[in-house]
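Sharing a chain and its predicted structure for anyone who wants a worked example. Both blocks are below, sequence first, tokens second.
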Amino acid sequence: MTAGVTEPVAARRPDLRLLLPALAAWGGALAGFGLPAWAVVSLLALGAAVAFHERSLLLTAVVAVAGACAVSASLRVEGNERSLVVDAARDHSFVELVVVLTTDPTTRVGRFGDYVVARGKAQEITRAGVSARTRAPLLLLGSGDWGEASFGSTIRVSGRLAPPLVGGSEARLSTTRPPVVLEPPPGTLGAAAVVRQGVRAAAAGSGPVARELVPGLVVGDDAGLPTDVIGDFRDAGLTHLTAVSGTNLTLVVGFLLLVARWCGVRGRGLLVVGALGVVGFVLLARPEPSVVRAAAMGTVALMGLGSDGRERGVRALSVAVLVLVLVDPWLARSPGFALSASATAGILFLGPPTRDALARWMPRWAAEALAVPWAAQLACTPLVAALSGSVSLVAVAANVLVAPVVGPATVLGLLGGVLWPLVPFVGAALGRCAGACASWIILVADRAAGLPTGAVAWPTGPLALTGLTALCLGLALGAPRFLAHRGRTVVAALLAVSVMVRPPPHPGWPPDGWVLVACDVGQGDGLVLNAGNGAAVVVDTGPDPRLMDHCLRRLHIDRLPLVVLTHFHADHVDGLPGALRGRSVDEVFVTALRDPAEGAEQVDRDAAGLRVRVPAYGETGSVGGVSWQVVGPSHPDPIASAAVDEGSPANDASLVLLVEVRGVRMLLTGDAEPPAQERLDRELGPLTVDVLKVPHHGSRHQSEEFLAGLGARLALVSAGEDNQYRHPSASTLDLLGRAGMTVRRTDRDGDVAVLVRDGELRVATSD
């Protein structure tokens, strides 16, 4: 080589040898959970024989690690199945337990009211007056006040046990009694709880949603986020911001390292600061399995920064997977673990070549900002599709747009929480700054999720997922060469944006002459009545704002003179923000019974500023081509009525509408159950309609006399595909068939349209 002349040094390929034992550990744990013992032993014996024959140290290590994890998983399963708790659960015994909580109790909204969910380790069981020591994982489902119980508390609780769900490891305890706290959390967890409370208090002066997002960004505490916001984050590919993830740890510990460097710390001192930061973060976010997993992946990401980061990052990822699965084999079956590992691997393997390709024609910092979310999203897309049935097309753009404020929001929120107990006004000021950053993230999520094709449905069958995996692999291999050229990259980006912004064409949809569409909104109701000229009356909005919004977009509806919410269960009202998005609304009808109260309060928040009222029994009205009459509930006191009828109060208080559009008479029944149906039959007398919206998603609880006496020609069932309630039931479908009705159902047919052509009643479906 001539003196003074330098040649480029080829980038070193990362050493992948450690990946094989890591993958073997994962596979061995899965085998230990899913295969019988004889099959696991046979596979290990075969592997050992091959390793001995080949005299390969690496192959021997792979077999040894796989065997260790398989044995560990098998022992965990065996020990759990033989525990006193699972034994009592098989008999559905009533027991008293001493439990150490491994999560904070969280309140969730159910179909019939709020309930509390927590996880713990059972330490002692008392059954039929006999006490014994035990050790078994437990899922607790309760009601009442759990205010004093928190992560790390030792509690005494009594209730009825049930076996673990299929594929699960935790027996379930259902209780209606609040727990008795025997011991508070250890001191370190108590100090962490003070900081967590400080984060919330510091952000309290921000907007109503932003103040709930800040704790999610700092420590993954998203309990206060509205369901529609959580849905927006999911559709925009930003869910990782509201859960404890490696991103949180990377930002917090990275900030600590920067401060340490500024203070003059170098060398091993930085390692000590980083280690203390990781431990502190785990304690702050609570040392649950998901937090430990996130901490491990965040540490890998930190090791991947700087010179030779890719080489060190791959080694660190391999070791992290290996150690985590050895310590806790259940992680091998955790979707969160798979997503974290996949995202980290994507950043390490796909990020550098993508960044280098983009850096040929744009600043390196911009190339890095685009490459990281692209690589992570591409690596996770098949898994996300398998779990959610959808693929986000806006995730990369949304992550790029929020990237500048995620770090400040997280760090400022943490500093606000630390300083709030000491200097409240400084903590509050920092919290408001964090809230301002959080507001921008919420705005991006809302706009991204509202795009017509921000997320597209994807089948979850083996063939479809294999095709998606192949597509992602092809993109990963071909992207660097493609992205190295500015012109075609810009053209491709503009085409992608146009596809996301403009609604895709739906040939033949909506069909001419449509009068009603039952939207496919999953397990819930979402009905649209055509009032003409882009206006519609909506009856219920389903559980998912995105699905409701997209159905209305496909129908070209931009004005809602009336929205009717038959009752306050989540599968009828949670999609309200989607119906309201970008549309003018004149009035909202609700039922008199505010049950569940949380659903009613959510509607109050979503419909703030709109005219909301309870229509009178027998009230009539019309708008455009739609006319209606309120025919239920008729009882002036829905609570008293439900008590007499022994039905579900909320379901039997459903608003029931008799509607006519272009001569087609339709009965929309909400979730009215047999007592309410029989009352309608008595009070309305002989009633004939053309179309019946089958009550309660076609559940088996129906009044045969009422439904058969309507003389309907068409029955619409609004239910979600493969829903846990098994709606619609075979008995109800048989009843409708015997009554001479043609049945169309959203779980199989997609959106279902009722239409009138040449004076005849017809039906069309989108699938």
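Comments welcome. The two ends are 68 Å apart (CA to CA).
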